[in-house]
Structure formats: C-alpha cells, structure tokens
C-alpha cells in the first residue's frame, strides 16, 4: 500500500525562508548605494560651479539640484531595502564589461601610434570577445566593415585629422 500523496509547495524565492537572515546585498540596497555614490560624485564634480540664487541662477544650480535628487532617491531605496524583503544580487558576469573595457583601452592606446586602420579592428575584435556565442568569421567581417565605414565617414567625409595608418619608417597616412 502506498503512502499519502505529498504535494511539493512552490516557494517564492524572492523572500528569505523562515529562520534565515535577510539578504545582505539585495538589488534595492545595491541600487540605493550606487545612486548615492553617483550623487556624491556629481556634487563633488560640480562643487566649483556657482549655484547662484533663484533670481540669478548660476551654472551649478541644475547639476547640484539633480545630484541631490538622485541622492535622495538612492537614500529612499536604501531605507526601503531594510524595511522589506527583496531579491538577492545575482552574480555579475565580468566577461562582457572586461572585454569591452579592454577594447576601449586598446583603441585609446593605439589610435595615435599605429592609426585607425589597426586600432578600430582591434577594438571590434576585443569587444566582440564579450559574446560567448561569437563566431570569428562574422566578427572579422564586422570589424572590417566598421573600420572601412568609419574611415570613409571620419577621414574622407568629415576630413578629421585622424591618422589612418602609421607604420614607422614605411607609411603614414
């Protein structure tokens, strides 16, 4: 004879289970702290600007006002994160941001030394590594297409003083 049929209860994973402590780094808490940090940076960056008065508004009034409002929103989020349960922060994959950052840094360091024709595809290739499903043929085609397109727009069309190709002692265009 079989025992009674058991039902498996579906639990809400967003709330901590009974007996467990609250989530230390919830999404709301991280968002609130991030907004407060952005606000503090904006207030610091605009500290040299004169605020003025309501009659004679200075160039620093709007940046400081917006920074303060962002900070207030961050503080509200932070307080609410302690008052109600929220989802834990998911693991943040670093592959994408690191590959894009590497591409930007490589472009910045090479565009003046070897030229746009080498720096632009290097940027596209390094940033393209951020995608796990990247296909080399498509990425190389994209890099070539974008490089040629950017050279036509910026060097030929807009006549900007961007070095296209620099090979010391051989060519400089």
UniProtKB/TrEMBL annotation:
Residue ranges annotated for the DUF1468 domain, each copy included: 30-163
Regions crossing the membrane: 30-46, 66-86, 98-127, 139-158
InterPro entries tied to this protein: DUF1468
Keyword Transmembrane helix assigned: yes
Keyword Lipid biosynthesis: no
Keywords linked to the UniProt accession: Membrane, Transmembrane, Transmembrane helix
Protein name, as recorded: Tripartite tricarboxylate transporter TctB family protein
Organism: Paracoccus shanxieyensis
């Amino acid at each position: 004879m079989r025992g009674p049929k058991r039902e498996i209860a579906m639990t809400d994973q967003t709330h901590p289970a009974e007996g467990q402590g609250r989530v230390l780094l919830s999404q709301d808490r991280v968002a609130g702290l991030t907004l407060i940090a952005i606000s503090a940076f904006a207030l610091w960056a605009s500290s040299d600007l004169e605020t003025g008065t309501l009659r004679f508004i200075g160039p620093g009034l709007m940046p400081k006002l917006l920074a303060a409002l962002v900070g207030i929103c961050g503080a509200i989020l932070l307080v609410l994160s302690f008052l109600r349960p929220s989802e834990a922060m998911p693991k943040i994959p670093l592959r994408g941001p690191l590959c894009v950052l590497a591409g930007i840094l490589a472009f910045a360091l090479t565009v003046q030394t070897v030229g746009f024709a080498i720096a632009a595809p290097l940027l596209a290739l390094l940033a393209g590594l951020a995608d796990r499903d990247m296909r080399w043929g498509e990425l190389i085609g994209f890099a070539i297409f974008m490089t040629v397109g950017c050279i036509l727009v910026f060097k030929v069309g807009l006549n900007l003083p961007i070095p296209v190709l620099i090979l010391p002692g051989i060519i400089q265009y």
